[in-house]
Amino acid sequence: MENQTGTTAGTPGTGATTSNGVGATDDVVDRVAARAHETIDRVAAKAGPAVEKLRESASTYREQLHAKADRLGALEEQWIDSARSYVREHPFTSLAVAAVAGMVIAKIFSSSHHR
């Protein structure tokens, strides 16, 4: 059977199942989809190790941050204990230092307030 352009519709071995080339289009779509799938697989294979490395780095940094926070907490505790001991051993000196510090702070705030 010949159509108007002189080609035979559905000729065996041409890859076309109809005169409009739907079968050939399906083949092209299948090839493009297969290539896209292969590309996605390659990208995923490369991204997996990178994501894992990033996750490990984040975990390491988190552990280091917690360790530093613990050390700062211990240092703070040490300073507080030291200050308490000094106040117990030298109560009058501590009171005088606190009074002078209060006056200095009051002077700073009162002079900056009048400007």
Key descriptive features of the protein:
single chain; elongated; ElaB/YqjD/DUF883 family membrane-anchored ribosome-binding protein; mainly alpha; 115 residues
Range of strand content: under 5%
Radius of gyration (Å): 40 Å
Element order, helices and strands? HH
Shape: elongated
Distance between the termini: 103 Å
Region (Disordered): 1-25
Biased composition (Low complexity): 1-18
Organism: Caldimonas thermodepolymerans
Protein name: ElaB/YqjD/DUF883 family membrane-anchored ribosome-binding protein
Structural description of this entry:
There is one protein chain. This protein has 115 residues and is an all-alpha fold. It has one domain (22-113). 79% of the residues lie in helices and 0% in strands. Helix 1 (22-89) crosses helix 2 (91-113). The chain starts with 21 loop residues before the first helix and ends with a helix.
Short description:
This protein is mainly alpha-helical and 115 residues long. The protein contains two helices and no strands. It starts with 21 loop residues before the first helix and ends with a helix.
Secondary structure layout plus pairing:
Layout: H1 22-89, H2 91-113
Helix pairs in contact: 1-2
